[in-house]
Amino acid sequence: MDFVELEAIEGLRWSWNAWPTTKNEVSSLVIPLSIMCTPLMQSTELPLLPYDPQICTHCAAVLNPYARVDYLSRIWDCPFCYNRNHFPISYSGIGETNLPAELFPTYNAVEYKIDKVDSKFGSNLHLGYCWSNGFSSSNVSLSSMSVGTPRNIGGAGAGGEVRGFVGPVPAFVFVVDACMVEEELRAVKNELLLVVEQLPENALVGLIAFDAMVRVYDLGFSDCSRVVVFHGGREVSSEQTQQFLGICSTKWGQQQLGKTPVIQKLGFLLPVSECEFNFTTAIEEICSLAVVMPGHRPQRCTGAATSVAVGLLEGCSVNTGARIMIFTSGPATLGPGIVVDSDLSDAIRTHGDLINGHAPNYTKSCSFYNQLSQRLSDASVVLDLFACSLDQVGAAELKGPVESSGGFMMLGELFESDQFRKCLRQIFSRDEDGYLKMYFDATIEVVTTKDVRICGALGPCVSLRKKNSIVSDRETGEGGTYKWKLGTLTNKTCIAFFFEVCDEQRAEPGSAFLVQFITRYRHGNMGVRKRVMTAARRWAENKSPEITAGFDQETAASVMARLAIYRAERFLARDVVRWMDDSLICFASKFGDYIQEDPSSFRLSSNFSLYPQFMYYLRRSQFIDVFNCTPDETAFFHLMLNREGVVGSLIMIQPTLLQYSFDGPPVPVLLDVRSISADVILLFDSYFNVVIHYGSKIAQWRKLGYHKDPNHENLRKLLEAPELDAQQVVMERVPAPKLIKCDQHSSQARFLLAKLNPSVTQNSTFIDGSEIILTDDLSLQDFMDHLQALSVKV
Description:
By secondary structure, this protein is α+β, with helices and mostly antiparallel strands. The protein is built from 20 helices and 32 strands.
C-alpha cells in the first residue's frame, strides 16, 4: 500500500489504515488511531464547484461518492447516519450517466466556491450556479470550474469620518518595536514599505509603534502626524482601547463565517488606496523616544502593544480575516507580558529557571497571552512574530497566541538578513490569479460514522467546544468538539486528529467506516470556500494481517512526536522520555516476532522496522532534549513541528544525509558518524539547518584552488552539486533554514556531529584517522539491543 499516493488523493495520512472493532483491541495497538490531515493540500485534480454543497439534514455531512442515490426519486442516503435526503430541483437531470462532480468515484476531495454577499451590505455576488451548468460526467472540465473576480469596497473618511466598507476585506496591523538599533529599524521600515506597495488597494492597514509607550497612528489625518498614546506599563481592556481610540464597537463576536459585517472605520485602519502616503510618512517617522539607562535594557512593552492592536481590530469588527504582525528585537521589559526586568543584572530565563520556578514573570505572562489567544480566536485575527536578536525575545511566552491563531513565527539574528526578507515576501506572495496566498477565518468540522468517536486534535487550531454524539469524553489536545477554528492556514498546514472506537454496538469486521473533513475558509479574494474530503477504511478483526499491513510507520512517528511535545510542555523531560520508552517497548513486544527470553530471535517486519529508529532520533532531538536550547528556540521548534506534514516532520525527527563523491550521483547514506569520509561531501538537512560538510581531502583541494583548474573539471562539478541542492532546499522552505558550510574537524562541523548516530566514540575501537564523536549517549545499535532485551521478557 502506497500511503504517499493515497495522501495525494485524499489529503490524509492514517497511522492505521484498518481499525479494530473494540476499545481493548485499539489500546493494545499502542499507537493511537489518528489521521494527519492537510486540509488545503494542493492537487491538480481538485474540482472547484461554483455552487452550494448538498448537506445531510441530520448529521450535516456533505454529499460524497459513498452516498447511495435513488435517481428516479432524486433521493440520496447519507452514508454516515443513513438519513434520506431529497435533491433540490437543480438536480432534476441527475442520472447514472449524468453525475455531479461530488459523486464521481475518483473525487474524494472537492471544493465549493460560495461567493455570497448579504444584500444589506451590497449586491448579491452569488452567481447562481448549480451542478448542471455543464458539470456532468460526460463533459466535466476542471479548468472551467474557476469563476469570480476580486471585490471592491468603499473607503473610509479621513480624520475620523466613519464610512462603511461593503464586502469582507483583509486587514493588516503592523506593530513595530521602536527600540531597535537604527540599521535594523531601517531594514524593517524598507520591507514594510515594499509590502504595502504589493497589497491590494482595498486591503486595510494600521500602524503601531512601541517602546515604553504604545503609539497608534491615525493614518487618515493628513495635516500632521497624529497618534494616540497608551502607557506601556498598564494592561488595557478591549473596551478601554476602543474608547480611547474613539471607535464605536459592534457585536462582532456574534458574527458567523460567511456573514459579512459592515466595517466601521476611523483613520486608524484604512484602505491602502486612501492612506499610502500617510502610511509611508508614518513609517519613516518611527524612532525610539525612550531613554535607555546605562546597565539597563530598553523599556519595551510588547504585550501592551499587542493587546492594543487586538482591541483596534475588535472595535473595527474586522472578523473576516486580519493579521497583527509584530517586529521586535528584544524581550518585553515593561507591562503585561513582561519577560525580564530592564536591569541587565537580571538574566533572561532559561529552561533550568522554568523547571526550578526561578522565572517570576513567566507564568503571569503566559496567562496574559493565553487570554489574548481567546480574543484572537473570537475576532478571527492572526498573530505573527518576526524576532531578530542575538538574545531571547520572549517567543516562549508568545507561542500560545501565535500557534493557536495559526500565525507565523521567525527567529533570526538580523532584520537585514535575506532570511527575513524572504519570509515576509513569501507571506505576501500572490497566486496565478493575482490574489494573496492567504486563507483566513477557517473552521474544520469532522463527521464520522456512528462507531467512531472524535477525541481531539493537535495543531494550530482551537476547539469550539461543540459536542454531539460522535465526540468522545476522552480528550486529546484540543478536544471536546467536532469543530475547530483556525485563524489562518496554508497549503501545507497539517493537523493531527485522534479517534477512538465505540464498541456499544460492535462493528462487523470487513465493513467500511467513513470520516469526512469539512474545511470552510476565506480565499485570498475573501470569498468563502468549502473543501470537503471524504475517506473510507475497513474494520478488521484483532490480530488480522490487514491491521499490520495498514500500519504507516512514518505517520505514526509524526503523531507520536506531536504527543511527545504536547507532554513535554506539561511534564518534565525525563517523564516524557519514560513514556516514549514504555510505549516503544509495548509496541515492539506486541508486533515483534521472537522467542520469549531470547533477544537474538527478535525481528520486526518491514512495515514496522523503521519505527524504533524514528523513536531513537526523536529521543535525541531538540524537541525532547532541550540541552543547549533556549526556551524561545524550543517554543519555535515545537510550533513548527505541530503544523508540519508527515514528510517535514520526519526530516525534523530523523534528518536526511546525502553523500556526494566521484563515484557517481549523490546517494542517501546512514545518519551515522561512519558516513563521514575524507574524500566525500555530505549534505545534511535537519529542516532548521542545512549543512554542507566537506571531507578533509576535498577541503584541502578546494583551498589549493584545484577546482579552478580546467583539468579538474570533475572536482568543480563535485563542489557545485551539493551547493545547488542546498540552495534549492533553502528556497523552498519557509522560514528558510540556516545554511552552514564546514570542513571536517572544523568547529562548525558540530551541527552535523550532534545529530549523527554515535556508533564510534572515545570508548570504541576505531581506526586512526576515522571520525569519532565524544559522547556518552547510546548508539542506535545499543538502543536496539536494550529494546530487544526488554521486549522479549515475559
